Amino acid sequence: MAQARTLTDQEFDQVLAYAAKTKHGLRNQTILLMTHWAGMRVGEVAAVRYGDVLASDGSIRSEIRLSAQQTKGSKSRVVLLSERMQTALRQYIAANPCVDRKKPLFKTLRSDGFTPNTLTHVINGLYRQAGLDGATSHSGRRGFLTKLSQKGVPVRVMMQLAGHSQMSTTQKYLDTRPDMLRNAVELV
């Protein structure tokens, strides 16, 4: 199976614009942002509860502490949230206030929220309907790590941000594009 492709900034804007027009636009945009801006796995996004992102005073946390049950590989991990991710979560929660801190952050018709499989289908559908062939639910996470790599972030730091235990796993996520190669040779 081919690897999910990373998106250009223009393509990412395209899928966000499409998501905004869907029935659950803000929810769908915020889900996409969590994969692209926080590097979260789809299963982790599906498992996030209001209490994971809200501090006791109602403010947005700067990090999400995921339990072993919420992650792949049954290892707890911390997801750091950038200021812009915190702002997006603040906007989402303002429109979808917390009634129960134990409830899933992203509401569905089901009372217990998305399953990882269902959320994968939702995300893949957003990419497909936005006209982005080859983009999948893994594109955000790959793009997150690729952008960090482009900015010179050390692989060990990326490894920790991704929740990987092996550097080789992190390296598989990194994508190269012709513009990156061109910029690299110009450094010599």
Detailed description of the structure:
This protein is mainly α and 188 residues long. Helices cover 52% and strands 4% of the residues. It is built from ten helices and two strands; from the N terminus they run ααααββαααααα. The chain has a two-stranded antiparallel ribbon. Helix 1 (9-20) runs antiparallel to helix 2, helix 2 (25-36) packs antiparallel against helix 5 (83-95) and helix 8 (155-162) packs across helix 9 (167-173). The longest helix is centred in the middle third of the chain and has 14 residues, at 116-129. The N and C termini lie far apart (35 Å).
As a percent range, the share of helical residues equals 40-55%
Quantity of strands, as a count: 2
Strand order of the largest sheet: 1-2
The coarse silhouette is: globular
β-strand amount: under 5%
State the end-to-end distance.
Answer: 35 Å
- The overall pLDDT, averaged over residues, is 88
- Category by helix and strand content: mainly alpha
> What's the total helix number?
10
Radius of gyration: 17 Å
Give me the secondary-structure topology.
Layout: H1 9-20, H2 25-36, H3 42-47, H4 50-53, E1 63-66, E2 77-80, H5 83-95, H6 116-129, H7 139-150, H8 155-162, H9 167-173, H10 178-186
Antiparallel strand pairs: 1-2
Helix pairs in contact: 1-2, 2-5, 2-7, 8-9
